[in-house]
From TrEMBL:
Residues 1-46 are annotated as: Disordered. This is CDP-diacylglycerol-glycerol-3-phosphate 3-phosphatidyltransferase. Residues 28-40 have a biased composition (Low complexity). Residues 1-12 have a biased composition (Polar residues).
Length: 85
């Protein structure tokens, strides 16, 4: 199990002999129309976040309601089996 050790080399370290890429070249794009582009993406991300938040809220409410119903069902079954006749 030596290969699975977190202290050993990773798969990429073992098989990738090339140098690691530098990400500086990606950040050197021109800044023309960059602010309008950024605003557009911020708006889309904001809209997506709002939708995600609404879906998550609805899902949480459904889980909460289902859990509550489940606990009441278990409680009723338990009380029926423990009642003395």
């Amino acid at each position: 199990m030596e290969g699975n050790s977190s202290y050993g080399t990773s798969w990429a370290d073992q098989w990738d002999y090339g140098p690691d890429p530098h990400h500086d070249s990606y950040n050197k794009k021109s800044n023309t129309n960059n602010s309008s582009s950024t605003a557009k993406y911020k708006q889309k991300v904001g809209e997506g976040f709002g939708k995600t938040k609404a879906v998550a809220s609805t899902g949480f409410k459904k889980v909460k309601e289902g859990t509550s119903v489940g606990f009441h069902w278990i409680k009723d079954k338990y009380q029926k089996t423990t009642q003395k006749h």
